[in-house]
Design a protein that fits this description.
Elements: E1 6-7, H1 15-28, E2 29-37, H2 45-56, E3 70-76, E4 79-87, H3 91-108, E5 118-124, H4 133-145, H5 147-153, H6 185-194, E6 205-206, E7 211-212, E8 218-220, E9 222-225, H7 234-254, E10 259-260, H8 265-278, H9 295-323, H10 331-341, H11 344-349, H12 354-364, H13 375-385, H14 395-406, H15 410-424, E11 426-429, E12 434-437
Antiparallel strand pairs: 1-10, 2-4, 2-5, 3-4, 5-9, 6-9, 7-8, 11-12
Length: 439
């Protein structure tokens, strides 16, 4: 990874403040989506919408997740949009949710056309204190620094000359000009609002929902990542949910040192040129003309994606540990690593349909920790979590009794305890006379 260039600032977070905000934002950020799609060929909206509403049961209430987590289903110029309620990201739950929404629709033949998009809303719910402005500044510049690579990673066109939808829907024209190195985020938001070139809500990273306190801190931390193309793969959608969460948490870490720079002048000009190649209004039927994206350019974009993921990898390791994965590998990171090399656009160009793409990405995703434990493991986990074996004078006595109660040989118990220790950490609690988990 290239060494990040940092703007020095006077409002940097202390280490303790950064730890506090990482923990707080991880616990409070919810990520919702707006999933747009075109109807199956030959199907009328008036015939398709009522059965869909009946099946997905939108709650129209942000405080009521409902059966599928759907807020509403609305008519869009491209077809329909399913508004998915924001929830705290947990990989198995999100995979189950998006599959319950999309799998039946893909079977019916819905389509991802260039007029369709996929928007991610990240927002904090119930946060009683403003977020330091430097964190938002780092999210903004982290997005700018890696914008062409993010655009490539989330591209989903079906032709080499039309890798992405057109720029109008997710414009970078203002974003590339506005830097927190010389402007406050309040000023940047005002410039976006007053722009004559780009409607405020169609910016690459949309800040229109953000509100500020009188001293410039962020009162309502609500960001919209607008640039992903339409996507009908549940595994891909969920992986990108974690991508944006990881970027925000990484922005908190960087706020200890300043604000990340987009790169040196020549490097930055090249990034803007790459963005112009990927995102423009020159293509046919609502697409960008990406005919200038040669194999050499694709290699350059892949390298940038790898740099971004390398920067975010420590965050994903922590997410894996917190969520209970047995290893340091997070399923979403595995999927993103594949998409960094072969995004949905290249997978579609290769001839794969959405069912085949989902199968490929699912295979790449790491299985969850729950799926890696057999019934005997779960009995042992229960015995530890519920403190069913307590009051023993030493670990050896506890192990002897655990092996007897759970019908393990001593060697088998030791093997299973070693795996549990690697997963969650184990410690002998002398006061309770039992083994306890550390996480």
């Amino acid at each position: 990874m290239k060494e990040p260039i940092i703007f020095r600032r006077d409002d940097c977070l202390t280490h303790e403040q950064a730890m506090y905000w990482k923990d707080l934002l991880y616990r409070t950020i919810k990520v919702g989506t707006e999933v747009e799609f075109a109807l199956p060929k030959g199907v009328k909206k008036d015939d398709f919408l009522p059965p869909l509403v009946e099946a997905l049961q939108p709650t129209k209430d942000l405080t009521n997740l409902g059966r599928h987590g759907v807020l509403d289903i609305i008519s869009e110029h491209c077809g329909l949009e399913i508004q998915v309620i924001g929830r705290q990201p947990y990989y198995p739950a999100l995979i189950e949710q998006y599959r319950s929404i999309l799998d039946p629709l893909v079977e019916k033949g819905i389509r991802a056309r260039a007029t369709c998009g996929l928007h991610y809303h990240t927002l904090t719910i119930g946060l009683s204190e403003p977020v330091p402005e430097i964190i938002l500044a780092n999210v903004w510049n982290l997005t700018r620094r890696y914008a062409p690579y993010l655009r490539f990673l989330t591209s989903a066109g079906d032709r080499m000359e039309a890798l992405c939808r057109r720029r109008n829907y997710t414009s970078h024209l203002e974003m590339v000009k506005l830097t927190p190195g010389v402007m406050s985020m309040v000023e940047i938001q005002r410039r976006l609002k007053e722009s004559q070139r780009v409607p405020e809500h169609q910016n690459f990273l949309n800040l229109e929902h953000v509100t500020f306190t009188d001293d410039g801190a962020v009162r309502d931390f609500h960001l919209e990542f607008r640039f992903p193309d339409a996507d009908l793969s549940p595994t891909s959608i969920v992986a990108k949910t974690f991508l944006f969460l990881a970027m925000i948490l990484k922005a908190v870490e960087m706020s200890q040192y300043g604000v990340i720079h987009v790169g040196r002048v020549r490097e930055w000009r090249r990034k803007v040129a790459l963005l112009d190649m990927l995102s423009n209004n020159e293509g046919n039927l609502a697409t960008s003309d990406t005919s200038q994206v040669t194999p050499e350019v694709i290699d350059e974009l892949r390298a940038g994606c790898r740099e971004l993921l390398e920067l975010l990898k420590p965050v994903f390791v922590r997410l894996a540990r917190v969520s209970g994965e047995r290893s340091d590998e997070h399923p979403a990171f595995e999927v993103l690593s594949l998409l960094a090399e072969t995004p949905l656009s290249l997978l579609r160009i290769s001839g794969r349909n959405w069912v085949e793409i989902e199968a490929l990405l699912s295979e790449r995703a790491a299985v969850t920790a729950e799926e890696q434990w057999d019934k005997s493991d779960r009995r042992l986990i229960r015995a530890i979590e519920l403190a069913e074996l307590t009051g023993y004078p030493a670990p050896e006595a506890w192990k002897w009794e655990a092996a007897r109660e759970l019908f393990f040989t001593p060697q088998e118990l030791e093997r299973r305890l070693t795996r549990l220790d690697e997963w969650r950490g184990l410690k002998w609690d002398a006061q309770l006379g039992t083994m306890v988990f550390l996480s």
